[in-house]
Amino acid sequence: MMSFNMGGTAEPVYSVPEYESILGLFLFPDLSFTTSQRKSKGDSVKMDVLTGMKQKETMEISQLMTEMEGKTVQINGAIHTIRDMGTVAFVVLRKREGLLQCVYVKGIAEFELEDLKEAASVLIKGTLSKNEKAPNGIEVMIESVTILSEPAETMPIPISKWKMNTSLETKLNLRPVALRNIRERAKFKIQEGVVRAFRDFLHQQGFTEIRTPKIGSKGAEGGANIFKLDYFHTPAVLAQSPQFYKQMMVGVFDRVFEAAPVFRAEKHNTKRHLNEYTSLDFEMGYIDDFTDLCAMETGFLQYMVMLLEKEYEKELIILDVTLPRVDKIPCVRFDEAKELVAGKYKRAIKNPYDLEPEEEVLIGQYFKEEYDADFVFVTHYPSKKRPFYAMDDPADTIYTLSFDCLFHGMEITTGGQRIHDYHKLLEKIAARGMTEEGMEAYLSAFKYGMPPHGGLGIGLERLTMKLVGEDNVRETTLFPRDLGRLEP
Amino acid sequence: MMSFNMGGTAEPVYSVPEYESILGLFLFPDLSFTTSQRKSKGDSVKMDVLTGMKQKETMEISQLMTEMEGKTVQINGAIHTIRDMGTVAFVVLRKREGLLQCVYVKGIAEFELEDLKEAASVLIKGTLSKNEKAPNGIEVMIESVTILSEPAETMPIPISKWKMNTSLETKLNLRPVALRNIRERAKFKIQEGVVRAFRDFLHQQGFTEIRTPKIGSKGAEGGANIFKLDYFHTPAVLAQSPQFYKQMMVGVFDRVFEAAPVFRAEKHNTKRHLNEYTSLDFEMGYIDDFTDLCAMETGFLQYMVMLLEKEYEKELIILDVTLPRVDKIPCVRFDEAKELVAGKYKRAIKNPYDLEPEEEVLIGQYFKEEYDADFVFVTHYPSKKRPFYAMDDPADTIYTLSFDCLFHGMEITTGGQRIHDYHKLLEKIAARGMTEEGMEAYLSAFKYGMPPHGGLGIGLERLTMKLVGEDNVRETTLFPRDLGRLEP
């Protein structure tokens, strides 16, 4: 650890806080403390006691903003960039709350500017002053610096630029470094906000958070798109959804949710597919019909927008995000939606029972143009396109009581009412030519009684992508997994 | 759907709320709504608009508790048990907030008691009254009932009993049903509280929640205990910890956390091992030393106890839980701890560089007996028992700046300071005879600068187990995965 001192004082600028300071008010009798000395025979028990959080002398940006001008402060951070203007230089620190401008003036700071390297972690001591042109309106006049850690090489990409103008491929290859760019990391703060909103909102609505296994003996919904693994010489699979488990748990907690990874061995190589993604799932009992689910999702989206406005304003500004309209979300039947876009955009309906990605885009466009809507619920998907557990519409069993939610023309949610009657579930399984084998536990929940229920799953990365205006889901995935990418 | 009516009224007791009621105040011009009718040619666009949450007529227990006696109420739930006392019968509903006693009196309720089955989902209409002896001090005099769903068979285990006296094996085999027992499900509400506390506390402390991939090309810490899978003809593994990723993300957000599944292909078949479990991980930059991490965990444990006391009182009472002491947590060196228990319990030290489970138990016992402590930090584990990235103690490189946290003598946390200097990391890798291959991305984070940092991982199921006083980690895992169990 190098240390640059201001004056001729022998005291280090940055002293590691005394370990004893965390002892608090209480000391066990006959106990003394030692960090790294070994106990010698005959000593009393050497022990420390933790009583809670440590007070730190270093400050974060939000703390600095409440401090008085002229105060001597200590701050740590990574040197994001150094702009040398001659007699004065700006040393911009990257801290978790944002950027902090520190001012180096030769002679005031008693060390050479050359001693500082971009990407070094430092502890700076200086004087706080206000500057409207600096980020957050504050800056620190540097007095002394302690280098905590230094890089071994210079940055391979210009992470301190506002827009890096680096290809997605390069950004993904250099992920741990590329994410240090302010705009890149802001996307994942927004993503954090989305998940927080999902959980907090559902918690308020009486949902219980559950954790279901990701390794299982059979895929929840069957099909070929399942990753297989050897589980102590037994064939096993990775969960492609928590579907069976969340339904089973409705019988326990009435309302449950989970925000966890799901795995899809799909060979899609598109801008909107990942082979591992985060699914925001909920399942609720005692619904009157599937629109209860749409209403719950609407409530979540409204809460999400509110939370982002309130607590993620900084990131919304960094990314220049205009939040979507969530006050009124149109709800349109699948067949109706197909006809609407076929009519308006002069497009022949090729397959009445399937929705092509292009049609989804046009549905989004239609409702944006006609009603200024950013989200649309498309309801009553054909039964043949939905899994066996989907409840058919009793009024027309070609369709189901299900829906997708589109955000700017992209499916971000799939949901619907499920069959809750044991015998009806068995009938549907038989009608599909499926086997009950491996579904015994799932079916047992129904055998012993299940309330009417339904649920949905939201693709977190897609929702984030659309929120921040990206067009590739890899842009809003920390470490994406796709057909060609297992690293980093 | 069967419906039992009270009087001779033609109106159904329970009418599905009109879909139109969710239209709110706003209607798009020229739009009308239809649920299941197909659009006829020439009709205008049939569409509904969702404006938020639906208001429900049915009430939850907390709402009922604020209502006036004598009020006519509607409630739904599963029939947990029926106790027929002759002229009066108690129909106990299981709702998400607890049990609700409903009273059936022949003649007042105009249907036969025989029409009700245990495990059916029902909607009950009745009159609210106070009764100190009933759960939550309230009960509902039943007027009419609507059966929403019925079981196909009677319960295979007595879930309505306070203690089921059923073997763990049976409970796990019948998991979706066994969890409906009030005590069983209470454990998982406590678990929810633990995770909420972890996230909320760390969020307040400036940590960012991250989501790291569970499929990767190489295990974070190497070793044989890794599940392998085929990833589109490329060998891949399941993450045994988010270690590498959370460290890389310290370079981005300074402080990060994740609560997610991890996978260990260990062939342990003990009461405290699972092959898939939830790891509560955090990693923080700019630490002064590893005791910052212990202090942060102490802060979390204190917050957790506070949250459980405040919001999970009901479950604590159901499970008769006495929360652990978290005001003062002793912190003792590994070698010191070994000598303490060897001395007090007359036990020879077999291996000075390893801690046996029996020794952990005795350390727990020692600190409980001597200091009434429920948690203990055991620090300075031998370097050879810690992974390569652990920082050795400069004062004695046989040991590391690391720790475990024991709860009643069981390891629930492993953590420590990590090497942050690129060259030192390379040296340690070389000294261990390891290869850098497959670690390029991880190492790149250090090459381009990383602050001093450290972190820890807490086993959620173990922590919950100890909190609720169970002795097998499967008791506090919704759907455990072990050597012999992949189902349900």
Can you walk through the features of this model?
2 copies of one chain form a homodimer. With 488 residues, chain A is α+β, with helices and mostly antiparallel strands. Chain A has 3 domains: 3-38, no CATH class; 61-149, Beta Barrel (OB fold (Dihydrolipoamide Acetyltransferase, E2P)), CATH 2.40.50; 183-476, Bira Bifunctional Protein, Domain 2 (BirA Bifunctional Protein, domain 2). Chain A contains 12 helices and 20 strands. In chain A, the strands form 4 sheets. In chain A, strands 8-12-13-20-19-18-15-14 form an 8-stranded mixed β-sheet, with helices on both faces. In chain A, helix 4 (182-204) packs across helix 6 and helix 4 (182-204) crosses helix 12. The two termini of chain A are 30 Å apart. The model of chain A is unreliable at 1-42 (pLDDT under 50). The interface between A and B is large, with 148 and 147 residues.
Concise overview:
The structure is a homodimer of 488-residue chains. With 488 residues, chain A is α+β, with helices and mostly antiparallel strands. Helices cover 26% and strands 26% of the residues of chain A.
Taking Cα atoms only, what radius of gyration of chain A do you get, to the nearest Å?
28 Å
CATH class category name of the largest domain in chain A? Alpha Beta
Under the CATH scheme, the architecture of the largest domain in chain A is 2-Layer Sandwich
Q: Largest beta sheet of chain A, briefly? A: 8 strands, mixed
Low-confidence stretches of chain A: 1-42
- The backbone outline of chain A, from C-alpha atoms, is elongated
Q: Roughly how many Å apart are the termini of chain A?
A: 30 Å
Quick one: which chains have the greatest interface? A-B, 148 and 147 residues
As for the number of domains of chain A, it is: 3
Number of helices of chain A: 12
Content of β-strand of chain A = 25-35%
Secondary-structure-based class of chain A equals alpha+beta
Number of strands of chain A: 20
The CATH superfamily label of the largest domain in chain A reads Bira Bifunctional Protein, Domain 2
